[in-house]
Amino acid sequence: MSAVRVAVVDDQELVRSAFTLLLRASEGVEVVGEAATGREAVVLARQERPDVVLMDVRMPGMDGLEATRAIVADERCAGTRVLVLTTFDDDALVQEAIRSGASGYLLKDVRPRQLLDAIEVVARGDALLSPSVTRRLITLFAALPYSAAAAGGPDVAGLTDREVDVLRTVARGLSNQEIGAELHIGYGTVKTYVSSLLAKLGCRDRAQLVMYAYESGVAVPRSGPLPP
Q1: 37 with 14, same domain?
Q2: Which pTM was predicted?
Q3: To the nearest whole percent, how much of the chain has pLDDT over 90?
Q4: Domains held by the chain: number
Q5: Which of 16, 51, 134, 165 could form a cystine bridge with 123, CB 3.0-4.6 A?
Q6: What is the span of the domain harbouring residue 67?
Q7: Which strand (E) or helix (H) includes residue 86?
């Protein structure tokens, strides 16, 4: 298997260099470049087409979220995924990052092994967010009041009954294997349903499927904390 090609974006040279050194010392990862601003990140992504961009959020000029939107909207970067890496543990920022097209969100105090695992998850493409990250999104949406869509009934236009079932389980943070066991269908069939949902709903990854499920009323926020 070829190495995961990664670009590191951070406006602080010390932080950027530290992550670059860590990644270059790790098997299976190739650092293809560094950038100190959002604009530089977009140019780098277009030139190098990395598998994953580690993206800081707070940067002068074009910030990380604007840069993320530019990268995911650019056909030249079709194979590039963005993993936000920030010091800000802010629920609103998590939501905005996912809305912008980021495939994951980590804090800069993440342990090296967790960072490498996250890069691998994001680069795989078929499981862009680990269940733990997906469950954080669910926790955020579960804390919100009922949406207008939910009050008027779920919006499932264009989806089959089985696709709705799968979407609801995705919104609960279940993995493909867990979905298959619950719905009594094969792992490959689950992947096919998830791929169909992504295409039909115009979602980039599972995180955006979770957001769609709650905002459309397909999944309904519940009171109380979710299980870990």
Answers
A1: yes
A2: 0.74
A3: 47
A4: 2
A5: 51
A6: 4-125
A7: strand 81-86
